[in-house]
Amino acid sequence: MPHIRVLIVDDDPLVRSALSHFVSRDPEIEVIGEAETGLEAIAAVEKDRPDVIMMDVQMPEMDGIEATATIVERWTDVRVLAVTTLDGSETVLPMLSAGASGYMLKDSNADSIVAGVRDVYNGASSLSPKIASMLVKHIRDGAPTGGRAGELETLTEREAEVLDRLAQGMSNAEIARTLIVSEGTVKAHLGRIMSKWQVRDRVQILVTAAHAGLINFR
């Protein structure tokens, strides 16, 4: 099977070393480079075109938020996984809004870190209910809702049900159980929503829906 090519971006060399050690234990993951700042990350992506970037948030010269926004705009096939010591709205939410496909805390165990890289690579980012709630509130506080609803292609009833459960922070497996369908069917519905709205992952489905006022987190 093809390698998942990973770039690690963090201004702390010990953190880069630890993250590299954790993810390299998976035979399908290859760390192709490291960078200390957002500017170095952009240069590395232009040179090596990784599949996944493990991106710190707080860095000198250019932080992870600005670097993420630049990277996802220029290279739409590159996925960014935010990796931070903080889980507050001042770090995680701006990273997700900038285009990161997921987030992890640096104190996560090795298996969770590997799973995070795989999830982002496969476009299967998932958010906890707490983070989903924070994301929706962050977007709504920053921009009026309802303005884009008429511009989006209408969802089917089942797609709307999947969206509603996604906004509750459910995983694909949890959505499948509540709708009494297979996990593959849930993935197919999410894929159709992404295609209709021209977004690339679960996080950006939530961003788009929140901007349009289509979801109410409860």
Explain what the structure shows:
- The chain is globular and about 50 Å long.
- About 2% of the residues have low confidence.
- The longest helix has 15 residues.
- The chain is α/β, with parallel strands linked by helices and 218 residues long.
- The protein contains 10 helices and 5 strands; from the N terminus they run βαβαβαβαβαααααα.
- Helix 2 runs parallel beside helix 3.
- A 5-stranded parallel sheet has the order 2-1-3-4-5, with helices on both faces.
- It starts with a strand and ends in a 7-residue tail after the last helix.
- The protein has 2 domains: 121 residues, Response regulator (Rossmann fold, 3-Layer(aba) Sandwich), CATH 3.40.50; 81 residues, 3-Layer(aba) Sandwich (Rossmann fold).
What's the CATH class label of the largest domain? Alpha Beta
Q: Sheet bearing the most strands, described?
A: 5 strands, parallel
What is the CA-based Rg, rounded?
Answer: 17 Å
Sheet/helix structural class:
alpha/beta
Q: Outline the low-pLDDT stretches.
A: 143-147
Count of helices? 10
Number of domains as seen in the coordinates? 2
